[in-house]
Design a protein that fits this description.
heterodimer; A: alpha/beta; Rossmann fold; six-stranded mixed beta sheet; four-stranded antiparallel beta sheet; 10 helices; 10 strands; 41% helix; globular; B: mainly alpha; two-stranded antiparallel sheet; 2% strand; binds adenosine-5'-triphosphate; binds magnesium ion
Chain lengths: 251, 326
């Protein structure tokens, strides 16, 4: 499904991601952990195209994607929920989620301006999908509120609904549980499990090792931009290199 | 229901007014409508899509010169009027490709520079008539029916404005409109939803240019001449002031802002042309007023005139947000 091969990216001569290779199989939930500044979010940005790699190849569903613009990669089936909440201001919760349907519909400026059948057809489809995505993340009751006034937990859920609306093949979640309280966290875990059961491939960055171990089939550990461990969660957690990286950070 | 009544009222007033006004009042009414047309485009571009342009006056000029040149070379006026927004949009597409890579005030300055360059070109070139401009532009006519009276131009202007408002409304409340509003907040997040951000910015820039171009086309037939002096940088600033005063990101706000500023400037002009006033009084006064109005609005009515008034109407007063989201 996704193959990252020898990818590097540096900022001002300092590597944020260095020679990272990683492959994710169809239907797999792959957890990515690592200390602060390890390069996890940078790796996501390289995969989704918000940053371009200095070196290396990325292929997705058999396509070379490392030179494609982010919106093209999105249309191939990648959806990301960013670490920092990015809800669209001045739009309702529902409208925010409707944006997620952009890549799956086609009514453009002319159809919209002239209210052509294409527009009406797409609007119906978009509204239906947005409603079901809102329901799925439990935001139906908030649908007509301004999105930027939601508390952080709901903003996360909103982004998840927007991402799901695109019906992705690969879902990238960057610390989705940070800032969530117990109940919201459980709800998120249940949703991820449900998505996995539905066969969705997921890359999950998470600081809480317990949380990610529960959900992931596999753990990849990044430290100083490099992969230092990759395998089943139980093995990885016992790996001396991993322990050292985390202890090193703690001291 | 209230919207419907308000809409019907506005329509009735716009239909009746031209029949009641004298020619000098009609001139103000027409210029107001043309300014509103451009301002709706500014509101779409700035308020919804988050892109700043200090060069809308240039697109207005392109529309005016296009229609004028075509009419003077014998092309039917209607074809010239249709060509005006198309030429402006085409120019916006070409110039937008490099310019729209810039953001915020960089984009504002670049669009301002574009207008300055175009104006000086129009003042130098022979085809555009140099500083004197183009004169004796034929009256507008459709199929032999000549539109000569100011009242007829008033109807034409306000029909154009209605069209521009309808197109904007339809775009905003649909898939491409949501994409524009999304990229105004975050181009990254918009791209992640599959929105081709660069292309959408280009299209909305061209659309706002087309509105300005259409207004310019009507303007050239109404006044019968165009010259570089008709499109000073001040008008581009004026459109932004109008959009901000009325309320960015509202379609009716653009009209309200255009009306408020046009009437204000009209009043001031009477003052500035009083005997004994220096010759630079009109322009200095309008700059000062724009600055002042802008500051007052930004400080006290950050959402603009229309939303501020609308929120105070009893039937529009929204209940306080529920405790959970505070
Ligand atoms: N746009 C950028 N410009 C300069 N440096 C950057 C940029 N983005 C990331 N970095 C640097 O790259 C390194 C990796 O950052 P990244 O955000 O990928 O870490 P992370 O693993 O996601 O950390 P966290 O757990 O805190 O989210 C950091 O040292 C960071 O300062
Ligand atoms: Mg991060």
């Amino acid at each position: 499904m996704l193959a990252v091969t020898g990818v590097s990216r540096s900022f001002g001569g300092v590597y944020a991601v260095r020679d990272v290779s990683l492959s994710v199989a169809d239907g797999e939930v792959c957890g990515i952990i690592g200390p602060n500044g390890a390069g996890k979010s940078t790796l996501f940005n390289l995969i989704t195209g918000h940053l371009t790699a200095d070196r290396g190849e990325i292929s997705f569903l058999g396509h070379r994607v490392d030179r494609l613009a982010p919106h093209r990669r999105a249309r191939l089936g990648m959806s990301i929920v960013f670490q920092a909440a990015r809800v669209f201001r001045g739009m309702t919760v529902r409208e925010n989620v409707m944006v997620g349907m952009h890549g799956r519909t086609s009514a453009g400026f002319v159809s919209a301006a002239l209210r052509l059948p294409r527009h009406r057809h797409d609007e119906r489809e978009i509204a239906a999908q947005a409603s079901s995505a809102l329901e799925r993340v439990g935001l139906s009751d908030w649908a007509d509120r301004p999105a930027d006034r939601l508390p952080i937990g709901q903003q996360r859920a909103l982004q998840l609904a927007r991402a799901l609306c695109a019906r992705p093949r690969l879902l990238l979640l960057d610390e989705p549980a940070s800032g969530l309280r117990g109940q919201e966290r459980e709800r998120l875990a249940a949703l991820v499990e449900e998505l996995r059961a539905g066969g969705l491939t997921i890359l999950l960055i998470e600081h809480d090792v317990g949380f990610v171990t529960r959900l992931a089939d596999r753990l990849v550990v990044l430290d100083l931009g490099q992969v230092i461990a990759d395998g089943p969660p139980a093995e990885v957690r016992a790996d001396p290199l991993v322990l050292a990286a985390y202890l090193g950070q703690a001291s | 229901m209230i919207r419907l009544v308000a809409g019907a009222l506005v329509a009735a007033v716009t239909l009746v007014l031209p029949a009641m006004l004298d020619d000098s009042a009609l001139a103000v009414y027409i210029l107001l409508g043309l300014a509103a047309m451009v301002t709706v485009g500014v509101s779409l571009l700035m308020g919804y899509a988050g892109q700043v342009s200090l060069g809308q006056g240039a697109f207005y000029a392109i529309g005016a010169y296009t229609a004028a040149l075509l009419a003077l070379s014998g092309v039917p006026p209607l074809a010239g009027l249709i060509a005006a927004p198309l030429a402006a949009a085409l120019f916006a597409l070409v110039i937008g490709m490099p310019l729209l890579r810039l953001r915020g005030h960089h984009l504002a300055f670049a669009t301002l520079a574009m207008q300055l360059i175009l104006l000086s070109l129009a003042g130098q070139l022979e085809v555009t008539g140099g500083d004197i401009g183009l004169q004796a532009i034929p009256q507008f006519s459709v199929g032999g029916l000549e539109i000569g009276s100011a009242a007829a131009y008033a109807y034409m202007t306000w029909a154009g404005l209605a069209l521009v408002m309808l197109v904007t409304h339809n775009v905003i409340t649909s898939r491409p409109g949501r994409a524009l509003r999304a990229l105004a907040t975050s181009e990254t997040a918009a791209a992640s939803s599959g929105i081709p951000v660069g292309r959408y910015k280009l299209v909305v820039f061209a659309l706002s240019a087309a509105f300005a171009g259409l207004a310019g086309g009507v303007y050239c037939f109404y006044t019968g001449y165009v010259a570089p002096g008709s499109f000073p940088v001040l008008i581009s600033i004026q459109y932004i002031v109008m959009a901000v005063v009325g309320g960015l990101g509202t379609i009716w706000g653009a009209v309200v802002g255009a009306a408020a500023i046009t009437l204000l400037v009209q009043g001031l002009d009477q003052l500035a042309y009083l005997p004994g006033m220096p010759s630079y009084a009109p322009s200095v006064l309008s700059y000062a007023v724009y600055a002042l109005v802008l500051i007052v609005v930004v400080l006290f009515l950050p959402n603009g005139l229309l939303p501020a008034v609308a929120d105070r109407l009893p039937w529009r007063r929204r209940s306080a947000p529920p405790a959970e989201i505070r």
